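ok so I'm stuck.
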Amino acid sequence: MSRSARLALLGPHGLDADGIEAFAAALKAACGVGDVAAVVLRLAAADERALTARVKQIAPVTQAQGAALVVACAGFAGDLATVAIRGGADGIHVDKPRDLRDLRGRLPDGRILGAGGLETKHTAMEAGEAGIDYLMFGGLYPDGVAPDPELVRARAAWWAEIFETPCIAVAALPDEVGPLCSAGAEFVGLESGLWLQDPGAVERAQRTLQEAAA
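replied:
not stuck anymore, here's the structure
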């Protein structure tokens, strides 16, 4: 029997203060029905104080369920590492990063550094060499467009075969979960559209991962 992948839950792009309480409630319900390893919190850009406050609302909910919280914020020009640390998150996630080595040096105490949005194998390998803790393939773009699921699966399979650094391969549709697990991804991410309004989707995805590994 092969090892089963674990789940990661992706929040919606641009989560703001108005949606944070509803998100926390949905997250608690979702984490309660499956083995969730991590949550990627994708916040709307704001000032550092406001972002820290939002992280503080979500971190206890996530961590109480045994999951790690990593924070992403497209368009934020400030110090995301400081936001994560002050907010009590477990780390940060950056898309199309340019300064991974610097970020790695500013994340103390074993906090997580994850990266995604890398379009070529070369940039993916460069990220791996910079000391990231995981690389994410797939995930909806901010405009709601999903990447080609076959490309996501192929990249995850390539990465898993060659590199020791774990990868998260993201499913935008339910029928993508099993193939991503079979490709060798250590973690399968669920886009928010799969689980935010339906916590049972996490339980179903968990069952799919177990069946794919059997």
